[in-house]
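Lab channel / #folding
Pinned by the channel admin:
"Please post every new chain as: sequence first, then the structure tokens as a reply. Keep commentary short and put observations after the output so the thread stays searchable."

First post following the new format, from NK:
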Amino acid sequence: IVQYLSSAGLDGAVIVTTPQEVSLLDVRKEINFCKKVQLPIVGVVENMSGFVCPNCKNESQIFPPTTGGAEKMAADMGVPFLGRLPLDPRIGKCCDEGKSFLSVEPESPAAKAYKEVIQRVEEYCTTHKNKENVLNPVE
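Reply from TO:
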């Protein structure tokens, strides 16, 4: 696996989890793997971090974190936390219709959350653009 990662020229890994402890346990292993093979970690995203009602636009917690969720886990492991993405049934509908959710519902809480995560990933890539890629050094 490390050979394939080395030749891919990756900027880093974006690791996605849910607030549930079973998912956080797996993600801790993924973070440790990335550290072991010296794959930079762009950050952690907490998916399904709530539910956005398509009618009233309020957000509810369906999977409340029992141990602090992804943000606490990321802090404990010393990796960046990129944000929380709520469930929104309109995302699936847009995907089924071949439409961009960010274009169709740009002011929804979920779209705003996606845009914040995207911005943080872009910032990481911009600030790390000229740094040496640990897995695939430029010779």
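NK: The beta strands are 13-17, 41-52, 59-60, 81-87.
TO: also worth noting, DSSP finds six helices and four strands in the chain.
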